[in-house]
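Protein modeling request. Please complete all fields; requests missing the sequence field cannot be processed.
Requester role: graduate student
Desired output: 3D structure, token encoding
Chains: 1
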Amino acid sequence: MQAQRIKEVSSLSGQGLEELFVCLGCKICASVCPLNDCGLEVNPRDLLTALFLGEPLDTEAPLIEFCVGCYRCTEECPWGIRVPEVIRALRSVLGLESAFERAFRSSVGRYGRVRECYVILKTLPFLVKRGYGRYLVRWLEYVGLGGSKRSEM
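Delivered output (153 residues):
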């Protein structure tokens, strides 16, 4: 089962297993991660090790939950391991994708590109539930569906 998960993460992240197994454990990725600047102690190497050794993954680990995909870790990694892509793949495999990520992927799959209206409509229940409904009027104005008049040039 663990081998299956590793292969699935490798496939979804677009990196071969050999690319992921070359991690030296230098922790440069952890030293440049902005999550550590926020007081969350994260180390991508620990995540990769747990994945490869078949250890249980903490689904509420700050790295899995809060990684924003800035790629600073990848830029500094001597081997160029694309940690954000591994994390996105893990989120998908473990069923931890956010409503936005699911809508984004659905939009690309359906239209071949991101359609903002589609993504907003797909995430609308989540946005309203979380209190973001108050921004809907502003967004409608932004996309040209609101009632406010824009100054003409």
